[in-house]
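Summary: Need help interpreting a holo structure output

Steps to reproduce:
1. Submit the protein chain below together with the SMILES for S-adenosylmethionine.
2. Request a joint structure prediction with the ligand placed.
3. Inspect the structure token block that comes back.

Expected: a single structure record containing both the chain and the bound molecule.
Actual: see attached output.

Input attached:
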Amino acid sequence: MTLIPEIKPQQSIELLKELHILTRDGKLNQDTRRKLKQVYHLYQFIEPLLTEVMQEQADPVLVDHGAGKSYLGFILYDLFLKQQATGRVMGIETRGELVEKSRALAQRLGFGRMDFLHLSVEDAITTEQLPAQVDIVTALHACNTATDDAIRFGLEKRAQFMVLVPCCQAEVAEVLRKHKSESFGLTPLAEIWRHPLHTREFGSQITNVLRCLQLEAHGYQVTVTELVGWEHSMKNELIIARYKNSPRRNAQERLEQILSSLNLADLRSRFIY
Ligand SMILES: C[S@@+](CC[C@H](N)C(=O)[O-])C[C@H]1O[C@@H](n2cnc3c(N)ncnc32)[C@H](O)[C@@H]1O
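--- attached output ---
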């Protein structure tokens, strides 16, 4: 039993050490205490969603895209799923060595309802290794357009919830840059992305706006909030989408209008399908 008040009695000390939340001698230091706070902060958003899907599905599936070391999946399993008889976490990751490590750790901890697939998010959409329907999709700092692929995955798999913390996305900024001089003739709004730094920042912001509209057009209710406690990272926008089967009427129209007024029509197929 641990005497560290921040650590809950059911938590695996071995896991916390593996995730470098506890030091090798089982202690929290200033850095790891902050890390643990961040993990709990994210957990508090996902735990109610898991509780909800557990009530509706016999064996719910959460798919975590761009899983990396899979710390999100491990924490969710350790704090929540471990206590349940059903519920599965599947991590999708392109770096084979991380997939192997996660598999080995899950086996060592006896976390039998965790799987890790060495796949890109894009390939995860069509693989037969994943079920036709999943309940929750997460993508935490999945690089560049992997968040967009995760959204497409969630739409194809009819996910009840998507929890996204986007990474920087370069694709939209690239198109803004490519058409910059033409855009100046089209709209004074082009001033917003005139300077290279602004091109990058605005590109990143407008990407998330387009993602939200895309989700709303497909019947999701979207909440955008800040992942507080992640001050070290600029990328702390948390998008939570819940399927409501009630597409916002003008979402698709707005998407079309924004793509056209910002000269982003090249990206139509990314956001509208
Ligand atoms: C910044 S890390 C985030 C890892 C983890 N989600 C976290 O928050 O700690 C991004 C991870 O996504 C993986 N990745 C990038 N693009 C991917 C893709 N298209 N499909 C699957 N994984 C991808 C990278 O290999 C990397 O491990």
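--- end attachment ---

Reviewer comment: The chain has two domains: 9-162, 169-273. Residues 66-68, 71, 92-95, 98, 120-121, 140-143, 146 surround S-adenosylmethionine (CB under 6 Å).
Status: needs-info
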